[in-house]
Design a protein that fits this description.
With 518 residues, the protein is of the alpha/beta class. Among the domains are: 3-25 and 53-210, Phosphoenolpyruvate Carboxykinase, domain 1 (3-Layer(aba) Sandwich); 337-513, Phosphoenolpyruvate Carboxykinase, domain 3 (Alpha-Beta Complex), CATH 3.90.228. Helices cover 28% and strands 25% of the residues. It has 14 helices and 30 strands. Strand 9 (174-178) and strand 10 (183-187) form a beta hairpin. It is globular, with a radius of gyration of 22 Å. The two termini are 32 Å apart.
């Protein structure tokens, strides 16, 4: 299917009988319930379940290899190539599938900075998917909607399964992106996060070519007007730590850094819900109300109260809500150049310190390393145990270009704006997973606040031996004995062995950035 015929197919899908164009939130909620797609929780949120796929399916993600992408994309296990004819064949199947059903069309933007925002259109067969994207992306006002011309289109057909032997996919699930036709095809999965992350991948391809650094991070602004960035993979605390009552939230997951400052790609938040409570995370708890989407959250049968402790379906329970549901959120989601950048890692080994101040060289090393521990349920096929993971730039699954492209852009900005970088362990202390304890949110918040308000700039530092990191010797509200991770272990020799093993893993992982491209 050529570019012109693909455009005609998209136009046909967005008009005619069975199309619901830009329905409001109440209308989408009503449609979802009437169609049996979900039910209302006691707090007013629409609750939906995604079946077998309760997380992303990265091994089923492919990019079309053509003249536009062939020499730019970092091809490999993350960016798997698929030829244009396979995309064309699946496009015809998806278009035929959607044309035979009711369709829900949403015209939205990705990006809060008008200079760099991307007009998108999402065509889905589920009303709750339309509600999800309406709340997650930037919603145009009436004037903007009248002139909205989509530059990228997502077709979401969760009930259509591919045939691998015919379609060139790995399984019946597929997430395909064609940068020439400016389209994304999603099928065989009901997990709504695939739509969000597919467009994030699009921005990671397009924006560096315009001089903007796309980042997998959250961002907030202090009362003094200074911005902070929080990098980290799923489960490391980006959403939780950036939703701080004392600071204004710019966004919880995806941002761009341009010559004028930071801007949120999205108009909403996608928060993990496991063990969510009003006491621990009040802003997120109260943001979940009518208009929000709860994904794979179990409801008590009689009361329909969400049970955030019940993870028998998946640990990757989620809530999607517009950012204005967070008190004191920045609307629109833009901020100045950051003063502090924090790299969050849920260290399953219990080796990294709760916080460390990084030199510029260490900052680049840890950014390219992107260390954390994958937590169960965030991707299909994950087991119950956390798995140590190195994900370049804290977002390798979403980076079409070589990691060095993003790292060099970050380094240039850190130097230019004299940014202080910190490494924060939101994982385990006193031992590895199963022996030590998860770092308490209260301790982590105290350390982060002390870094952002300058308190940690006036204390004494010492150096740990495994990575040569500078560790504060004191911090208000934090027991001094946990600041050095070795001191928190009863068995010091066991810590030394574990630290040496983790340091060796870092070194082995980093060699790939020095190795010549095959």
């Amino acid at each position: 299917m050529g570019t012109s015929s693909a455009a005609e197919a998209l136009q046909a899908l967005a008009s005619g009988e069975g199309v619901h164009l830009n329905l409001s939130v109440p209308a989408l909620v009503e449609c979802s319930i009437a169609r049996g797609e979900g039910q209302l929780a006691a707090n007013g949120a629409l609750t939906a379940y995604t079946g077998a796929r309760t997380g992303r399916s990265p091994r089923d993600r492919f990019l079309v290899d053509d003249a536009l992408t062939h020499d730019l994309v970092d091809w490999g296990t993350v960016n798997q190539p698929i030829p244009s004819p396979h995309f064309d064949a699946l496009l015809e199947q998806v278009a035929s599938h959607l044309a035979s059903r009711e369709r829900f069309v949403q015209d939205l933007y990705c990006g809060n900075d008008p200079a760099y925002r991307l007009p998108i259109r999402v065509i889905s067969e589920y009303a709750w998917h339309a509600l999800f994207v309406r709340q997650l992306f930037v919603r145009p006002d009436a004037e903007e909607l009248a002139g909205h011309m989509p530059e990228f289109t997502v077709l979401a057909a969760p009930e259509l399964m591919a045939q691998p032997e015919r379609d060139g996919t790995r399984t019946g699930t597929f997430i395909l992106t064609d940068f020439t036709r400016r389209m994304v095809l999603i099928g065989g999965t009901k997990y709504a996060g695939e739509m969000k992350k597919a467009i994030f991948g699009v921005m990671n391809f397009l924006l560096p070519q315009r001089g903007v650094l796309p980042m997998h991070c959250s961002a907030n602004v202090g009362q003094d007007g200074t911005t902070a960035l929080f990098f980290g993979l799923s489960g490391t605390g980006k959403t939780t730590l950036s939703a701080d009552p004392g600071r204004s939230l710019i966004g919880d997951d995806e941002h761009g850094w341009s010559d004028t400052g930071i801007f949120n790609f999205e108009g909403g938040c996608y928060a993990k819900c496991v063990d969510l409570s009003e006491a621990k995370e009040p802003q997120i708890f109260h943001a979940i109300r009518f208009g929000s989407v709860l994904e794979n959250v179990v409801l008590e049968a009689a009361s329909r109260q969400p049970d955030y402790t019940d993870i028998h379906l998946t640990e990757n329970t989620r809530a999607a809500y517009p950012i204005e549901f967070i008190d004191h959120a920045m609307i629109p989601g833009v901020g100045g150049h950051p003063r502090n950048v924090l790299f969050l890692a849920a260290d399953a080994f219990g080796v990294l310190p709760p916080i460390a101040r990084l030199t510029p060289e260490q900052a680049m090393y840890h950014f390219l390393s992107g260390y954390t521990a994958k937590l169960a349920g965030t991707e299909a096929g994950m087991g119950r145990e956390p798995v140590p993971e190195f994900s370049a730039c804290f977002g390798a699954p979403f980076l079409p270009l070589p990691p060095r492209v993003y790292a060099e852009m970050l380094g240039e900005r850190l130097r230019k704006h004299q940014v202080t970088c910190w490494l924060v362990n939101t994982g385990w202390s006193g031992g590895s997973f199963g022996v030590g304890k998860r770092m308490s949110l209260g301790v982590t918040r105290a350390l982060v606040n002390a870094a952002l308000d300058g308190t940690l700039g006036g204390v004494e530092y010492s150096s740990e031996t495994a990575f040569g990191l500078s560790i504060p010797q004191s911090c208000p509200g934090v027991p001094a004995e946990i600041l050095n991770p070795r001191n928190a272990w009863r068995d010091k020799a066991a810590y030394d062995r574990q630290a040496a093993e983790l340091a060796a893993r870092f070194e082995a992982n980093f060699r790939k950035f020095d190795a010549p491209k095959a």
